């Protein structure tokens, strides 16, 4: 029988090992795969809602500079005078950045966990190709969207990117920035990547939340395809409208 070492006090009595202190419940939950899946799903829902609201708000650009600039000022004046000018807008931005960071970390952690747990190969080449395609699409579309988000914030919210940026005049900034063909191309590529990400994310969201009854697969796929198409068409219309001269300074 193997001997078991037991730590003893000065008087020779056995000392029980100290129990590891648990982290707060939300942290412990997030450390589990189930917790990460729910965080990724819930942050995904929040980000989808933001993307939709952002696209709808930007449609005011077609109403002319006065309407669009008033919309931009409305966002900066949210909850004024309860909070100072632009404070609530910055709180929203910080919340979105945190949600985006949690979404990325949860996705990365789950991918690593799945790779480590995969001890057997796929039963067929078709299954492997399908799973690998979905994984690669989500990974690379996520990277493209993340990099584009940083560019987008600098381009139209913070400093501008080489054109005559004027703070407080979003209509003029959009027209001047997207009037450069290579910037319009960046926006088109990024939003097509966003569409792929939204499609796969919307579809897998139902599975993650447990809403995956086979009877609703057709409706799920229709929602995922429709939502992604709506966002891509709406967002891609902005650089195309500037390039076509529909929106100009």
CATH superfamily: Fumarate reductase/succinate dehydrogenase, transmembrane subunit
**Mean pLDDT, rounded to whole units?**
86
* Secondary structure tally, helices: 8
For the record, the count of structural domains works out to 1
Radius of gyration computed on alpha carbons = 24 Å
What distance separates the N and C termini?
86 Å
CATH topology, by name, is 3 helical TM bundles of succinate and fumarate reductases
| Order of helix and strand elements from N to C terminus | HHHHHHHH
User: Which stretches are poorly predicted, pLDDT < 50 over at least 5 residues?
Assistant: 1-7, 127-131
Strand content: under 5%
Describe the structure.
By secondary structure, this protein is mainly α. It contains eight helices and no strands. The radius of gyration is 24 Å and the shape is globular. The chain starts with 24 loop residues before the first helix and ends in a 6-residue tail after the last helix.
């Amino acid at each position: 029988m193997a001997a078991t070492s037991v730590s003893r006090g000065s008087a020779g009595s056995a000392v029980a090992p100290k129990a590891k202190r648990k982290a707060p419940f939300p942290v412990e939950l997030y450390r589990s795969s189930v917790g990460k899946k729910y965080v990724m799903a819930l942050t995904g829902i929040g980000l989808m809602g933001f993307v939709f609201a952002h696209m709808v708000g930007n449609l005011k650009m077609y109403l002319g500079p006065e309407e669009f600039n008033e919309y931009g000022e409305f966002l900066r004046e949210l909850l004024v005078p309860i909070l100072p000018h632009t404070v609530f807008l910055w709180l929203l931005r910080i919340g979105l950045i945190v949600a985006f960071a949690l979404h990325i970390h949860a996705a990365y952690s789950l991918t690593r966990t799945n790779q480590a747990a995969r001890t057997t190969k796929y039963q067929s080449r078709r299954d492997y190709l399908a799973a690998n395609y979905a994984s690669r699409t989500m990974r690379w579309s996520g990277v493209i969207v993340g990099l584009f988000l940083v560019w987008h914030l600098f381009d139209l919210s913070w400093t501008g990117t080489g054109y005559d940026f004027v703070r407080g005049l979003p209509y003029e900034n959009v027209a001047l920035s997207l009037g450069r063909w290579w910037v319009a191309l960046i926006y088109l590529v990024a939003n097509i990547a966003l569409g792929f990400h939204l499609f796969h994310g919307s579809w897998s969201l139902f599975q993650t939340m447990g809403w995956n009854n086979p009877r609703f697969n057709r409706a799920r796929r229709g929602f995922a395809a429709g939502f992604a198409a709506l966002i891509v068409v709406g967002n891609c219309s902005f650089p195309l409208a500037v390039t076509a001269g529909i929106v100009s300074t």
